[in-house]
Amino acid sequence: MNIGFLHKWKSQVKKGTLAFIALNVLKDNEYYGYELIEQVKKHTKIEIAEGTLYPLLNRLKKENLVTSKWVEQESGIPRKYYTLTPTGEETLLQMRTFWFDLEKSIKKISK
Amino acid sequence: MNIGFLHKWKSQVKKGTLAFIALNVLKDNEYYGYELIEQVKKHTKIEIAEGTLYPLLNRLKKENLVTSKWVEQESGIPRKYYTLTPTGEETLLQMRTFWFDLEKSIKKISK
DNA sequence: ACATATACATTGTATAACTATGTATTTTAT
DNA sequence: ATAAAATACATAGTTATACAATGTATATGT
Predict the structure, then answer these.
(1) Each residue's pLDDT tens digit, A10-22
(2) Would you call A19 and B12 a contact, using CB atoms and an 8 Å cutoff?
(3) Where's the Transcription regulator PadR N-terminal domain (chains A, B) (predicted)?
């Protein structure tokens, strides 16, 4: 059944998908990184590695799709909260269009 | 709106997706490379570059998911036809499961 | 005390899409 | 007749990103 191929493939599918997922999650609420991972794990079957998410959030910030602010906790480690920028919201809309077209295309060819 | 980001993102989404698309197309018929590109272009919005497809088909062959055979033409350049192997068919089923779970997850978080 | 969970981050590796380029044949347009 | 475009394969180099491994530091449960 070629488990090795399947494993590599799933990893490749996540490329790009994870940015889309993160922006979707941040559309309605602001979250800090660790919380975002937990949210996605709770509501979907998707597991995002920490070593994936933190660089991803930094990329999104550099691209001006999200902003972040540190929030001190009364107890515990400070948290970095992320919010969508207006650019981020517009871009997310474009991404959704592309994604749903892709879904439709794949549905068509997988009959 | 960050066109640069969007362009890169679409390219990343294609990683993995294209292998899935190619296997889906080959599920019901055998095709040669150039024809496969035309088929996908005709039935979907997806454009596969030649420099992407030929290496992809070679990978799939090396992974034992497809086989190929040369077919001479009465006129014109010989064509290399690709067919799914039994391993390819099984793997495709696993891929479909993952893909449709992913779809569902994304639908959930993009509300 | 010790393990686990929380919360951030970086480095190195592997993989795959795409551009550019190349070869060769056939068809279409001028 | 000849040039351009389409058909049909292929490879090398560039770029981007997921993930494992590793590191720092605090808090909580046993």
Answers:
(1) 999 999 999 999 9
(2) yes
(3) 23-92
